[in-house]
Design a protein that fits this description.
Blueprint: H1 2-9, E1 19-24, H2 28-40, E2 47-53, E3 57-59, H3 64-68, E4 78-80, H4 81-84, E5 90-94, E6 97-101, E7 106-109, E8 112-115, E9 118-121, E10 125-127, E11 142-144, H5 148-167, H6 171-177, E12 179-183, H7 187-207, E13 217-221, H8 233-246, E14 249-251, E15 256-260, E16 263-266, E17 270-273, E18 276-279, E19 283-285, H9 287-290, E20 302-303, E21 316-318, E22 323-324, H10 338-357, E23 370-375, E24 379-384, E25 387-390, H11 391-405, H12 409-425
Helix pairs in contact: 2-10, 5-6
The protein binds flavin-adenine dinucleotide (FAD).
Flavin-adenine dinucleotide (FAD) binds at residues 25-30, 53-55, 61-62, 64-65, 96-97, 122-124, 145-146, 187-188, 286, 288, 320-322, 336-339, 341.
Length: 436
């Protein structure tokens, strides 16, 4: 709070006051912008950078499914912001952003108000939840995968299911426990379902001898007529084949229409008894962004121009999952991806400095030459333009690509070591009881 007071006491009208850059969010957008920005500051330049986020770390979400499925240890895909940057010109505040007032140039947070001269909005997205009503009890089998805590819950839940199912005498009840439903066959859903399959069949079934593996069902429910509908056919065909070989039941053209206690209903007709529904059906913008007084789209993302600024609000930038940036070739908003967010972060950081220094800004140009999806422990699919790699080679490129994107040698070594040791000694199946 002391920091906040000194922050607010710097009046923007005073020419000698530091220019205040406020970064909201410590995810891919915020963290990469910070990485780009700080080394570009000139010695003695009168600029103060503040980052506000509800987590004090950067979370490497593309590997979250590996935490949920017991390969990587929880903290190894997170990086504390304070360790990342401790310059005198930088301040980190852990707080919830509750309201963004662009007209007053202020963010209301759980730690007080923060004013700015330049604002970078990188508050990300939240899971798009079911659009039908369900009670708390009915939704008790529903899990999302967006945060570290989500991953920990999923992992413990699955191990706990195996503990209970191994002692269950009622066959119908046991079948219900051993039926796993993944809703949404986009990138994240595919990565999760394949890793889940390997977790179960390569690790858990070895240790739970009373469970007949033939009773285990893994079902993937997809609303479109094929999995990963916005990807290239070659990739889709390969992944479809993999899912088939893995024994994952894919139900295309299917929508979960109701959640009941320990059951889901598909297309208003098919009933599936299950204690596990992993809800990976896409994202909508952070609610704080959806409420700002600037143009937003139907997913609540704030509309930005080619310089990533919010038109009509000088010095305000938005990037990543909370921004609607239209690809000028397709005319469509670009999809929420870590890679494009990283590139936007670099452009936005440069443009904020260009604004302050009175030089020309650079436009952001979207390009998407890569596609890469992990498919369980040993396989992945990788595309670079029209060049494809599948299987173990694809997995190698996938791993190298993500290790390079992950900052900090310490985390890279820990992630690599986790993968290596879990391949040799098996995944950890400790059942840590956590109260909701
Ligand atoms: C499980 C999973 C797997 C994924 N896999 C891939 C993949 O393989 N490849 C790929 O390209 N993309 C992947 N993505 C998408 C990718 O993670 C996002 O596109 C990317 O993180 C967007 O970056 P961002 O900065 O906009 O948001 P985020 O990285 O989500 O960062 C948002 C930040 O804002 C903070 N925040 C949120 N609300 C508040 C608040 N009210 N107050 C304060 N702080 C707040 C959060 O703590 C976080 O630090 C995956 C996403 C998930 C969830």
């Amino acid at each position: 709070v002391t920091a906040l007071k000194s922050h607010d006491s710097e009046k923007p009208a005073n020419k000698t006051a530091a220019k205040r850059i406020l970064i909201a969010g410590s995810g891919f957008g915020g963290t990469y912008a910070l990485w780009q920005l700080m080394p570009l500051l000139k010695h003695g330049e009168n600029i103060k950078v503040t980052m506000v986020s509800n987590e004090n770390f950067f979370l490497f979400t593309p590997l979250l499914h590996m935490v949920a499925m017991g390969i990587i240890e929880t903290r190894h895909i997170s990086y504390p912001i304070r360790k990342l940057q401790n310059s005198q010109q930088f301040e980190f505040i852990q707080a919830d952003v509750n309201n963004i007032d662009l007209a007053a140039k202020q963010l209301k947070t759980s730690a007080g108000s923060l004013s700015y001269d330049y604002l970078l909005l990188s508050l990300g997205s939240v899971t798009k939840m079911p659009d039908f009503e369900y009670s708390r009890a009915e939704g008790s089998n529903l899990f999302t995968l967006k945060s570290l805590v989500d991953a920990v819950y999923i992992r413990n839940h699955i191990i706990n299911i195996f503990e209970r199912a191994s002692a269950e005498k009622d066959t119908a009840k046991q079948r219900q426990m051993l039926t796993f439903v993944v809703a949404g066959a986009g990138y994240t859903g595919i990565q999760l379902v394949t890793e889940l399959r390997d977790f179960i069949f390569r690790s858990l079934t070895r240790f739970y001898k009373t469970i007949d593996p033939r009773k285990i069902r893994i079902i993937m429910v997809e609303i479109e007529d094929k999995i990963m509908s916005d990807s290239r056919p070659k990739l889709v065909n390969y992944i479809t084949g993999c899912l088939e070989k893995m024994g994952v039941e894919v139900k295309n053209n299917s929508r979960i229409t109701a959640l009941k206690e320990n059951r889901v209903i598909i297309n208003n007709s098919e009933i599936i008894d299950t204690e596990t529904v992993l809800w990976i059906t896409g994202v909508v913008s952070n609610p704080c962004i959806a409420e700002i007084k600037a143009p937003t789209d139907d997913l609540g993302r704030v509309v930005v121009d080619e310089f990533l600024t919010v038109p009509g609000f000088k010095g305000v930038y938005a990037i990543g999952d909370c921004a609607n940036f239209k690809d000028n070739r397709s005319g469509l908003p670009i999809p929420p991806r870590a890679h494009s967010t990283v590139r936007q972060a670099k452009v936005a950081a440069g443009n904020i400095l260009a604004d302050i220094r009175g030089v020309g800004k650079k436009p952001y140009r979207f390009s998407n030459p890569f596609d890469t999806v992990s498919l369980g422990t040993t396989k992945a699919a990788f595309r670079y333009n029209d060049f494809y790699l599948f299987g173990v080679l694809g997995r190698f490129v996938w791993l190298v690509g993500y290790l390079l994107l992950m900052k900090g040698s310490y985390n890279r070594v820990r992630i690599f070591a986790d993968g290596f040791f879990s391949a040799i000694f098996g995944r950890d199946i400790t059942n840590v009881k956590i109260k909701a």
